[in-house]
Amino acid sequence: MIVPNIVLLTSYGCTPCLRVKRILSELQAEMPDLCVQEVEFKSASGATLSLKNNVLYPPAVFMDGRLLAKGKIDAQKMIEAIRESRGIS
Questions:
Q1: What is the per-residue pLDDT across 18-27, written as a single tens digit (0 to 9) for each?
Q2: Does residue 36 contact residue 8 with C-beta atoms inside 8 Å?
Q3: Which fold has domain 6-85?
Q4: Spans of all domains in the chain
């Protein structure tokens, strides 16, 4: 089993979540080995992630187990951080 590099904490009907999901999907097209897993904010694992990282509402993006961005996510900063982690500038 492949452990995801990116975890998106999301919620049904969350418009900002859909935007981040679209951006991550575009990055996956550019980086096919990028693994993205979605976790529902209200699920048990979502609640654990939220509490541990002080996430009050979705979306939140985790990279390699660490919180990368939450709330009003700056798409460009998120993309740059993911590309840098892959050695892509």
A1: 999 999 999 9
A2: yes
A3: Glutaredoxin (3.40.30)
A4: 6-85
